[in-house]
Amino acid sequence: MNERTTVLVIDDDPGIYEFLQTLAMRKGYGVHTAENGEIALEKLDEIRPDIIILDAVIPGIDGLATLRRLKERAPEVPVIVLSGHGQARTIVEAMRLGASDFLRKPFEAEELELAFSKALDNRALEAEVISLRGRVRTEVDSLLLGGDNPKMRDIQEIIEQVADTDITVLVRGESGTGKEVVARALFQLGNRRVRPFVKVNCAALPSELLESELFGFEKGAFTGAQKRKLGKFEYANRGTIFLDEISEMAPGLQAKLLQVLQDGEFSRLGGESDVRVDARIIAATNRNLEDAVKKGEFREDLYYRLNVVTIQIPPLRDRIDAVPLLVDHFLGMYNEQYNKSLEKLSDETTQLLMDYHWPGNVRELENMIKRMVVLGNEQTVLKELTQREPVRASTADDDELDLAALSAGFSNGQEVDLKAISKRASRIAEKTVIERVLGQTRWNRKEAAARLQISYKALLYKMKENGLSDSR
């Protein structure tokens, strides 16, 4: 028996609570019973159930009054209300008082199992929200450690202005800049913070699986669909859903998402009726959506629906003065987490970090500091960093033509090797373009090769020829 999952059954009908007890124990749950509200409230002092099943009609304190007092005492515990009458007024009042679900008697065992699953999933999501609540502020503070960067101050101002609204927000920026941190900040500072925050990575699943993940399916919708499955939008009801990598969503799914944005409803796979949902949508992308719209890869009407308020996060290389502040923050955080005591970084390491171009942005810096703390020294990471393509402070010999030296040569009447100059200029331009495209694709070499219209092998050769590290 799983003692961590317990059910409290409040019902005065022996037949019903024996049935419920049998069903719950079959699922591996521990079960407690109470014949009325008074006994249930007394037991609440001894146990803290994970789920409560409450009959709406019980002796003594009636079901709705019991529900009110249960939610006052244990607001985090989901309550499934049962009723043989099913009057609309009772259902509405039960849901208003905080019931997680409502089942009419008689009900099938499958219906109760689904209600169990939904209640536990929602509780797990709410527990995640609580555990992340303190961390969010720290993460937001670390993200906004932008030195004196005006762009970061603007982002903080926008977050504070729109967090407490239901307006759709599109967060844009390169991979690793902190788009999810901004999404969680919008959620945590908003009026839905006590409700679920549900994240979906639209690039992590193929289109067919993503549709069922987002919108759920009915029993028999396809082979293997043995029972109804709720989608992420239903779990996010009255809360917030974060759609990461929104640009990777297939056109068919984009149309269904547009319906949710416009009408607040959708249909499950295999469903005959629409499901209404109230979820705030925050979307994120590291791609240029305007280009995707022009290429027909992203719906224009969906783009305008999402692009109500945009937060553009600058890459770390454009706010390099934030690096020392971020380093101090991550050192403190991981020293505490791993019980280490890595001292302040050396001036040499700090300068290398300031000179590096950070294609992986804040995430790359965080992982680097984390490794330093775990290893207990900075030398291994320092050696790795010096082997990478340096830096923003490139030399004239390596990354640019020395026009001053050429000018002096002209004045002295020296011969000029135009072919060599052309070749050098071409190499510098090629290196610059390749590095820029690699940065835009988060060093995804296959995607970069496609954008550069060369083969994957040709890109690897050119990276080696131009001294661009292949070990990132």
Describe the model:
With 472 residues, the protein is an alpha/beta fold. It has 4 domains: 2-107, Rossmann fold; 123-312, P-loop containing nucleotide triphosphate hydrolases (Rossmann fold, 3-Layer(aba) Sandwich); 325-353 and 365-387; 396-465, Orthogonal Bundle (Arc Repressor Mutant, subunit A). Helices cover 51% and strands 12% of the residues. The chain contains 21 helices and 12 strands. Helix 19 crosses helix 20 (445-452) and helix 20 (445-452) packs across helix 21 (456-465). The longest helix is centred in the N-terminal third of the chain and has 35 residues, at 109-143. The two termini are 47 Å apart.
What attributes does this structure have?
51% helix, 472 residues, Rossmann fold, 4 domains, 21 helices, alpha/beta, 12 strands, elongated, 5-stranded parallel β-sheet
Topology at a glance:
Blueprint: E1 2-10, H1 14-26, E2 29-34, H2 37-43, E3 51-55, H3 63-73, E4 79-83, H4 88-96, E5 101-104, H5 109-143, H6 150-162, E6 169-172, H7 179-188, E7 197-201, H8 207-215, H9 232-235, E8 240-244, H10 251-263, E9 265-266, E10 275-276, E11 280-285, H11 289-294, H12 300-306, E12 309-312, H13 323-337, H14 347-355, H15 361-375, H16 379-387, H17 396-399, H18 403-411, H19 418-440, H20 445-452, H21 456-465
Parallel strand pairs: 1-2, 1-3, 3-4, 4-5, 6-11, 6-12, 7-8, 8-11
Antiparallel strand pairs: 9-10
Helix pairs in contact: 5-7, 10-12, 13-15, 19-20, 20-21
